[in-house]
Sequence to fold (290 residues):
Amino acid sequence: MKMKAFLAVMIAVASLQLSGTSRADSSFPPVTITSISVGGGQVVLNWTGGRPTYQLQTRNDFSTPWVNLGAPSSNTVAVVPVTGAQAFFRVVSDFTARYQVVFNATWSQATHPAGWTTNAHWSGLVGGTHNSAVHFFRAGELATEGIRQMAEFGAKPQLLAEVGAAITNGTADFQLSGSGLRPSPGSVSLTFPQPMRRDYPLVTLVSMVAPSPDWFAGVDSLSLLENDQWLAAKTVTLYSMDAGTDSGLTYEAPDQATVPHIPVMQHTGFPALQNGVIVPFGTFTFTRLD
Fold:
């Protein structure tokens, strides 16, 4: 990360080193700290440039991670209490971005004629935003109980609880819950309930292929930051996945619990394989709104 400005202030109780840094797109000038004043037990910082929102961050030395001070804001001024310890500060611009996702379900009798079901639909979208310290499903790993319930029954509460636990642990930011789709093909959109943050840039979002034994589609830990910038738009192709918890072989097969469970995997045979080609079930298109 490039330092756009640097200023050190020595007072009796603290040594403060400040830098402004811009992570906005190139159409915005970089953040530049324009003034700093110390008095009354506080430091007042002013800056220009960058793209709202801004996040003031601090750390005690170069070996520790940056920590947010307060919430993201559109203000270009911040007031920081003076402490007796050395502190470093920086301003990160374009810290948040608001997104909408459109689920375009292409799964149909035309795309997947083999063994077609007459009741094709999708369960409600469910997931969350998070960082790399957590994930909620992954090919090659056993499904969580939340993924099992979503993939077998289209149920959301357990998976939302798993995201909620991650929020409590500081590895996720907020839950995602949206409408399902009946019939398929079709499309449905979900506007994120709050902006995404740079410290939680990943999205996990899933929906059950319904009816099915335990099949679903979605994205695991998709980053909406690339080259340190929020994406204006990103389309992801969705392939059907098997949760590894039910051994049914057809869309409307009776429950046949897989004991023990096997890892989540992408389908390479039925229902994805059609005339020798693995055919996708739809797309997610994420679009920045602000």
